[in-house]
């Protein structure tokens, strides 16, 4: 006797070729029905013109035909925009108004720098802000926020539940894998704990009332993004790139991943746009080429939120634990980061009104 669950189980290993994630996990397989030897289901894509749709359908058919007793597989292909998506039940966090992810396709493009400075800048403007470091492989937010020696305490809340008390600096509450995991523990062991830790960071932290919870994501389109998007309703995501053309493809993959998960991409941030030498501040050098962020934003039809120059004090501030928006608020990079923070806040409020 054929069962729906068996169909989902054989489909589980079939991946979206771009995102390299299971179609079942991405909630792209719906309405599985079995009638005699015919199995039918709906494949839900983000765009009806998906260039890879034929391949995906073929992979699905092949997988389902492995089941004994199946003769015909009928796949109906539909598309849903992120706004139309019907999503698995997601549980908001009491007291947190908006959750915003800072993500990128590539590593080392400046996500953590952007996340930390956007968080501090929003706090400077009077908002209540939290920062969740979701990077288990390289949790460097504690250092950048001047909290490398901080310890998080477990306390009992009013309901008698144990909760983590976040660390705090520059007006920002923060938790990080860096506080919980022994730095000598092999990274390979952290992977399977990811889902649990991210949920703990959302629901078992004494965040209190927050206007914004900024999430610093690890690079790529991995499990942290998936876990986050499936756990809580998010107000949006910003994707960080450098001007190099190679990043376009990564940014596109990042955008698609969030769309697939029903998360609105608020825009692209171009980092390391041009180099300002410390001794010749009037000069700009396009080290990584120019216009990549704008081109990416145009091609993906999302706004370019701003361009941040490459300046020595940004890195020094990160290493020293003094974010550039605190150390040199009048520097070109701090001004760009503050503008980006304001734009993100604006776009979140507009999205909330729609
Ligand atoms: N605009 C900038 N000017 C100067 N240095 C920068 C700038 N942006 C980032 N950096 C430096 O580049 C390095 C990488 O930045 P960061 O750690 O923010 O990137 P990331 O995308 O979070 O990296 P990962 O993928 O490893 O998490 C850091 O040393 C940071 O201080
Ligand atoms: Mg980082």
Q: Give the uncertain stretches in residue-range form.
A: none
Helix and strand element order = HEEEEHEEHEHEEEEHHEHEHEHEHHH
The whole-number mean of residue pLDDT values reads: 88
**Radius of gyration from the CA trace?**
22 Å
Detailed description of the structure:
With 354 residues, this protein is an alpha/beta fold. The chain has two domains: 4-79, GMP Synthetase, Chain A, domain 3, CATH 3.30.300.130; 99-353, 3-Layer(aba) Sandwich (Rossmann fold). Helix content is 34%, strand content 25%. It is built from twelve helices and 15 strands. It has helices at residues 4-11, 53-65, 111-124, 141-144, 177-180, 194-203, 223-231, 246-260, 292-300, 312-320, 324-327, 332-353, and strands spanning 15-16, 21-22, 29-35, 38-45, 72-79, 96-103, 129-133, 153-156, 162-165, 167-169, 172-176, 210-216, 236-241, 265-275, 304-310. The strands form four sheets. Strands 10-11-7-12-6-13-14-15 form an eight-stranded mixed sheet, sandwiched between helices. A three-stranded mixed sheet has the order 3-4-5, with helices on one face. A two-stranded antiparallel sheet has the order 1-2. α6 packs parallel to α7. The chain is globular. The structure holds adenosine-5'-triphosphate (ATP) and magnesium ion. Magnesium ion is lined by residues 111-112, 135, 138, 140, 216.
Question: What can be said about this structure in brief?
Answer:
34% of the residues lie in helices and 25% in strands. It has 12 helices and 15 strands. Strands 10-11-7-12-6-13-14-15 form an 8-stranded mixed beta sheet, with helices on both faces.
């Amino acid at each position: 006797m054929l069962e729906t669950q068996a169909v989902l189980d054989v489909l589980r290993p079939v991946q979206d070729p771009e995102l390299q994630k299971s179609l079942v996990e991405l909630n792209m397989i719906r309405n599985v029905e079995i009638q005699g030897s015919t199995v039918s289901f709906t494949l839900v894509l983000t765009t009806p013109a998906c260039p890879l749709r034929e391949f995906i359908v073929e992979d699905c058919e092949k997988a389902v035909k492995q089941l004994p007793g199946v003769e015909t597989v009928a796949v109906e292909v539909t598309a849903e925009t992120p706004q139309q998506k019907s999503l698995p039940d997601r549980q908001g966090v009491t007291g947190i108004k908006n959750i915003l992810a800072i993500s990128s396709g590539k590593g080392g493009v400046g996500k953590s720098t952007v996340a930390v400075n956007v968080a501090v800048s929003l706090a400077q403007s009077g908002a209540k802000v939290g920062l969740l470091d979701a990077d288990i492989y390289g949790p460097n937010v504690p250092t950048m926020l001047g909290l490398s020696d901080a310890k998080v305490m477990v306390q009992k809340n009013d309901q008698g539940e144990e909760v983590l008390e976040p660390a705090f600096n520059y007006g920002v509450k923060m938790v990080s894998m860096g506080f919980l995991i022994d730095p000598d523990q092999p990274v390979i062991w952290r992977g399977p704990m990811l889902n649990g830790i991210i949920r703990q960071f959302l629901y078992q932290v004494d965040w209190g009332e927050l206007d914004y919870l900024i999430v610093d994501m690890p690079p790529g389109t991995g499990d942290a993004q998936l876990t986050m998007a499936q756990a809580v309703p998010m107000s949006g995501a910003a994707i960080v790139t450098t001007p190099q053309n190679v990043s376009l493809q990564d940014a596109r993959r990042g955008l698609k991943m969030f769309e697939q998960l029903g998360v609105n991409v608020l825009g692209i941030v171009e980092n390391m746009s041009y180099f300002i030498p410390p001794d010749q501040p009037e000069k700009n050098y396009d080290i990584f080429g120019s216009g990549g962020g704008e081109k990416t934003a145009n091609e993906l039809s999302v706004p370019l939120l701003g361009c941040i120059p490459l300046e020595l004090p940004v890195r020094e501030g990160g290493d020293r634990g003094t974010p550039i928006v605190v150390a040199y608020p009048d520097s070109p990079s701090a001004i760009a980061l503050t503008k980006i923070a304001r734009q993100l806040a604006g776009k979140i409020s507009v999205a909330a009104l729609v």
